[in-house]
Amino acid sequence: MTTEQRASATDTGLPVINRRSLFKAAPAALLVGAMPAVSMAEASHTPVIRAYLEWKTYSDWLNNGTGDIPDEDFDVLVERRYSMELAMFDLPSQDLRDATLKLMAFTDGGSDFSDDFYNTGMRLVKELGNMALSTIGEAA
C-alpha cells in the first residue's frame, strides 16, 4: 500500500505529505529561517532596555573587536559609548529592570564604579532609591 493509498483511506481533505513534498518545500523553509524574527519579548522592551541592548552590543565590540587602532581613533569610539550612556540615562526608568540596566551600563557590567565623568552615578542612586521607596509607600 502506498502513502497516497493510506492517505485516501483516511481522507481528511488535507494534502498528502510525503518525503518528496517535504524535499520540495525545503528551499522555502530556508528562506523563512533567514528572515529576521522579532520576538514578543523584543516588541515589549522599554526604551531603556532597547538602549541598553544597543549599548551592550557596541560596548562588547569596543572591548573586543576594534583590533589594533590608534589611541585617538579609539578615544572617539569611547566618546560614542559615553554618548550612548548619557542618552540612556536621560530616558525615564519604567521599572527596576530599567534602573538596573542603567547601573550595568554605568559600571561597565558591574566591573567599574569609578568613572563618573558625567555625574550620572548620583542621579542613578537617587532614581533607584526613589523606586525602592515607592514600593514601601515612602516618598523620597
Give a short synopsis of this structure:
This protein is an all-alpha fold and 140 residues long. The protein has 7 helices and no strands.
Question: What layout of secondary structure does this protein have?
Answer:
Layout: H1 3-9, H2 19-34, H3 40-43, H4 47-64, H5 71-90, H6 96-106, H7 120-135
Helix pairs in contact: 4-5, 4-6, 6-7
InterPro entries: TAT_signal
Describe the structure.
With 140 residues, this protein is mainly alpha-helical. The protein has a domain at 46-135. It has 7 helices and no strands. The model is unreliable at 31-38 (pLDDT under 50). InterPro entries: TAT_signal.
Features:
mainly alpha, 7 helices, 140 residues
Name the helix and strand elements from N-terminus to C-terminus, one letter apiece: HHHHHHH
User: Would you tell me the structural class of the helices and strands?
Assistant: mainly alpha
Uncertain regions: pLDDT < 50 for 5+ in a row? 31-38
Q: How many helices does DSSP assign?
A: 7
Radius of gyration: 26 Å
Please give the alpha-carbon distance between the first and last residues: 79 Å
**Strand residue content:** under 5%
Query: What is the overall pLDDT average?
Result: 75
Major sheet attributes: none
| Helix content range | 55-70%
* Overall geometry: flat
Total E-strand runs: 0
